[in-house]
Amino acid sequence: MADEKGYRDIPLGGLILEAGNAVGYKTGGWRTYRPQVDKGTCTDCLQCWLLCPDSCIDVEDGRMTGYDYDHCKGCGICAHICPAKAISMVLETDAPGAADARGCFGSKKKA
Amino acid sequence: MNRIVALTGNEAAAEAMRQIDPDVVPAYPITPQTELMHKFAEFVADGLVKTEMILVESEHSAMSAAVGACAAGARVMTATSANGLALMWEIVYIAASLRLPVVMTVVNRALSGPINIHCDHSDTMGCRDSGWIQLYGENPQEAYDNILQAVRIAEHPDVLLPVMPTFDGFIISHTIERLEVLEDGEVKHYVGERKPLHPLLDVAHPVTYGPLDLQDYYFEHKKQQAEAMVRAREVVRAVGREYGALTGREYGFFDAYRTGDAEEIVVCLGSAAGTMKAVADALRGEGRKVGVLKLRMFRPFPADEIAEAIGRAKRIVVLDRAEGFNAVGGPLGAEVKAALYGRSSAEVVNCIYGLGGRDLSPELARAAFDLSGPRTVHLGVRE
To answer: Do B211 and A11 touch (CB under 8 A)?
Structure first.
């Protein structure tokens, strides 16, 4: 905790004076199962984007392009709702690129 | 310019609130506070204040609404007693830890059970460690004066803590006494306008109140609170001095009555002080060197000043209108003894009295002066 500020240098009463700071709080490390999309099957209906409680579905030009794994907690709502069954939930340790995702575990500090 | 009136303690408190004209008052009725809010609700209905009065469904909601409105930037006041305060418990701590200068009068009443509506201090003593400043009033005059000063103390930039002015249920709340009140304009000028630090309604500067605060910063925020309580001492003193210049009634941490050369001193809170001072006068007439220290400010606790004021006495009797259930004594007794530790060789008796509104008669008051110890005594209970 050597980098943390002292009690004289922080806002009173635990107030956070910076708006939208949750972006800096990476919660992807909480995930057990990781959603993965098969773009060959995905129809870009964007129901996953509509229902994701953490705004973790990346969309460009009206097309679903992937996940914000820094903040996705792996709740599985996207996989459950997907009408095309294009989304699967994979155990984090079995997922391709899992080593990158595990990098989230060390980044739990608030911005 | 003081105006002389005859009011009950509750009416005096309501009059203070009318003159302060707070922005928001969320309230729920409970004996013996009911008459206070009844009176204030009349002022609202009659258009004598601009206050938004919120009639909530419980005290938990009253304190929650107070927290929300105060965070929004409003000047917020409320009042309660006993079980009402107990139902607020969770939010009482939150108001203090969010550093919200809510002013809540507590009309002291015994906590259940068995259920009882009369005075003791078990309600406010229970939240002595909640982070609120506590000012105990002896009579309707002090009830009125403490509430006006509470606004200034709570909102002072060096403090920003909620304040709980208290007075004894029924004994003070329902007893008419002569008191002096200020003109409306004087009060308006005295309390001024609240200048909130980070109001939620300042949408150009969005702010989060009450986020999760774990091992990394919670301790620092508690240290801030503890420091604010230390700074509150000087603010209470300065506000009391300024109030004295305005009204002729200066306030400090306590009233030391005939303690200068006293060998036997009683320490007490609230309405008991009137009886104890009258009995002290009688004992002085009999040649005994007695005095009374009436504590006004229990939080923060003026330990150094108390030790300075009474440490030279031979015997000190500390009256507690609350039982600590610690198999040792009451809360005031414990704190006074801690204040005297290493600084006084006085014998200290802790005397629990008046629970559930049991009367403190002059005869019992005299008996209190005669107690010797060191020990804890339950005065006035039947064997």
So the answer is: no
